[in-house]
Amino acid sequence: TVIRSWIIGNIIGLLPGAGASIACFLGYNEAKRFSKHPEEFGKGSIEGIAGSEAANNAVTGGSLIPTLTLGIPGESVTAVLMGGLIIHGLQPGPELFTKYAPMTYTFFGGFVVIQFFMLLIGLLGCRLFAKIARVSDAILIPSIFVLCVVGSFAINNSAFDVKVMFVFGIIGYLMRKCNMNTAAVVLALILGPLGEKGLRRSLSLSGGDTSILLSTNICKILLALCLLSLLSPFVMKFFKKEKKADEAVLAEEEKEIDEANKKN
Fold it and tell me: Using CB atoms within 10 A of its CB, is residue 48 exposed (0-12), middle (13-18) or buried (19+)?
């Protein structure tokens, strides 16, 4: 689970503007999809925690690639980091690895050292951090509610955004009650505007010609992967049925063998 989510996080980090939110939901969703006990998810499953957190942590490393080589921040953390580099007179791009190579590779060395400090802090502080789970719902729920309202209003200073938040909160509650995948909807809300912006830019460059979407091998591969991801639930369901059928056959054979042994 950790290795799978690490790969997902790195790939998402490479995409400019994607960010940790998408990686978290994808890591969680894939962990649930491949889990032998998906019914435990949402009830404290360690696989769910590992799936989302490993992807979340891997994003920063992946997002450093477009930030340092192209000057395009992969997420909010690397955007702040890029701002810090510019303030100190370091322009992200190829020059970082030639003209400012000593500074850049010292920077990389610092990241290696930080990993050990993170591990140490995590091991020493895990008992303290875990105590947050003991916070009463009477404190936690109102606090989250206030943050949701303030956050929704603060983006555009609009009461309409708060109403939209309430509507989608109700939709999310109903989806949970109907055992529907809420992570997929959140991903759609995050990726939708990015996909629409990219589509408009492509059609603008081609003068409205949709053949540009199949103009290169990369486009064809990406569209094939999109199609594969859409069909994956049906494929997984088919394999699960096959597995259950095989297990049923094996169980029947074992039962017959046991009965034969008892007779003997």
Answer: buried
**Whether the Cβ atoms of residue 41 and residue 88 lie closer than 8 Å to each other:** no
- pLDDT tens for 209-246 read 888 888 888 888 888 888 887 787 777 777 777 667 66
Cβ–Cβ under 8 Å, residues 97 and 67: no
Per-residue pLDDT for 49 more than 80?
A: yes
Distance in angstroms (rounded) separating the CA atoms of residues 49 and 27: 9
Q: What is the pLDDT of residue 187?
A: 66
Element (H, E) at 8: helix 2-14
Residue type, 103: M
Q: Which residues contact 127 (CB under 8 A, 6 or more apart)?
A: none
Residues whose CB falls within 8 Å of the CB of residue 190, separated by 6 or more in sequence, listed in order: 19, 21, 22
Tokens representing 182 are: 């809420």
pLDDT digits (tens, 9 = 90+) for 4-46: 999 988 888 887 666 777 888 888 888 888 888 887 887 778 8
Triad 175, 179, 180: Cα angle to 5°: 55
Token pair 């494929």 is found at 235
Q: 79 with 19: CB under 8 angstroms?
A: no
In sequence order, the 6+-apart residues with CB closer than 8 A to the CB of 93 are: 69, 70, 71
How many Å apart are CA 32 and CA 106, to the nearest integer?
A: 39
Specify the DSSP class assigned to residue 38.
G
What does the block give as tokens for 254?
């074992």
Q: Are 85 and 36 in contact (CB under 8 A)?
A: no
Contacting residues for 57 by C-beta, under 8 A, at least 6 apart = 9
